[in-house]
Each structure stands twice: as C-alpha cells, then as structure tokens.
Amino acid sequence: MDVNMDSLEPSKNDLIGNQQAIAYTLQQYYDNKAIKTNFSYVLYNDQEVSAKEEEETFEKRIDYGHTKGVVFFDKISGFWLIHSLPKFPSNETYIYPSNTKKNGQSILCITFGYEELTKIGTQLFYNHPLIDTSNLAPSMKSENPDLAKVLSKEYKKNSPFSSTLYLQSLKGQQFISFAKTADFNLDLYDSLVAPTLQTPLFVETWRQNSSNSIPLNCNAKYLVLDAITMKVKKTKEFKHTVDHSKLAISTNSNKPYICIGDINRMISQFHRGGGTLSTNITQALKTRNEFLVELADVKKENQNIRKAFNELSK
Q1: 128, 240, 244, 271: which is the annotated catalytic residue?
Q2: CA-CA distances (angstroms) from residue 129 to 71, 213, 220, 246, 292?
Q3: What average pLDDT does the segment 7-25 reach?
Q4: Does residue 26 come out as left (phi exceeding 0), alpha (psi in the -120 to 50 range) or beta?
Q5: Is residue 301 in some structural domain?
Q6: For residues 295 and 80, which has the higher predicted lDDT (pLDDT)?
Q7: Residue 181 within any structural domain of the chain
Q8: Which end of the chain is more exposed for a tag (fewer CB within 10 A), N or C?
C-alpha cells in the first residue's frame, strides 16, 4: 500500500527481487553512501547483518534498543524506513535475508522534508539503536544535535523516558512517532500509544511464550488486546509465534489509526528501547477492515472489553 492506494493489495513483485519499492528506495543509499559531504544516513538493527545468533538470543539483549530501520537524507528531503527484518539491510547491495522468509514481517517507509530529520534523531536518541553503519554530513551536524549524539553512541539516560513527536511527510501526511528508552520499564502500547491516541488497540507482535505475555488490564480506559493470528484479505495467516511484524490497529472506527514499529509487546521488552509510527489517514479506515484478526480469549463481561470487541466488529 502507498499514498496513491486506498486499500492493501498484493504486489506483483516479491521482496526477493530488486524490482520493487523497498529495493528502489534503498538504492538511493547504495548509489550515494560514498558522498559523505552531501548525505547523512543511519542503518540500525538490533540483529546486525553479521550476527550468527538466533532470534531468541537477541530478544534477551538489553544493551541496545529493539529497533530496526534506515534513515537517509540530503538537505532537501529523505526517508525513514522502519521494519522488523533481522539482519537487514546489507551495506553493499539489496539482498532480502533468507532468515526472514518463514515469518510475517512489516515495513513502513515515509518520505520527509529535511526539517523533520532533527525529530527522527531525537527519537533514535531515546531508542538507543545498534548502528551498523552511519554518516552525518558536516553541514547537517549543528542542526541535528540528537542524531550527532546517536552516532557517537550516546543515548537518553535520564527522565523523561519516552518521547511523542508529530511529524509531517513531504506530501503533508501527519504521523505520530512514539519512542521509549530502556528505563521506561512499561509496555509501549499500553502505557503510551493507546492513551495518546485515545483508542483501544489490537496489537500483533512476535511473542514466543505465555510467560512473556502481558496480562490484560481490564480497568484501562483504552484496552490493548493481543492478536493471536492475523491475515490480510486472502493472504497467508500468521500466528503470533511466527509473525515478526509489529502492528497496532485501532478498534475505534472513528479513530482509524494504524501503527507500524519495531518493538514487541512482551514483558521482556519493558527494558528495551523501541517505538512505533502511527497515522490516521483516510485510507486507514478501509485498510483497518482488511485485517482479519483472532484475538486472545478473554472474558467479555467487563464493560471496557465488551465495548472494544463491539467496535472491532463494525
């Protein structure tokens, strides 16, 4: 789905080949990364391309944020690509990693004007990403102090432990960026996203065992419900144990937010930096209804839970 489409449609080209949007986007980096005076970029991934450990090992790491993405800008515009793919992207050329093919994944790419880079830098400062490769053009350093800190391996160590910033795409679309540090010590979706958006959410992220699941807070004003399975239209169904995407979708038809990020909804992630990017767009209401979701089995006697389920069924 892109800005010119009003619904989710399967691409004619898969992500393995390079004749598709993600490869075209990253080619800007590959073509210009050597021109360090004109371009700034950050490739970050908590499971770096050279890593040999399995995913479960990286879920236990707390020294860096659970973050994955690419930032690439000149002094006019650039893009922020947020994704869930371990060991991606390669520094040298576009390669879709073989280890990601068995799981569901999510990728969000937004084009921003240069003036938004300073905000993106602030969110990364909160997230504490593990950087694979980076460059900050000298002419951009003074205008992007937080990004300069990130590239110097600095990160947010004192309160506040979360940051909510409003960004505008190059074509004027509004986004809300949520970021937390490791010291936030709470679930991002329960404690920051849902209260800010003022809507219940259902969330599909990678969850490997029940002991890591976050108990449902039945007394919360805006409930956050875990998805057990998710599919889009007639595509393959993914259970949460094999779905590596990080999606949150509003259950309120009057506030059709969709959020795509890089942190999981698990107890072990309380102590990890990470975030999500949310938008409320005209297409979101239709898109929201194209997700087929099986939610966790919870009792519906509670008024808040019953209301959330009723909204979801609209």
Answers
A1: 244
A2: 12, 24, 30, 17, 32
A3: 84
A4: alpha
A5: yes
A6: 80
A7: yes
A8: C
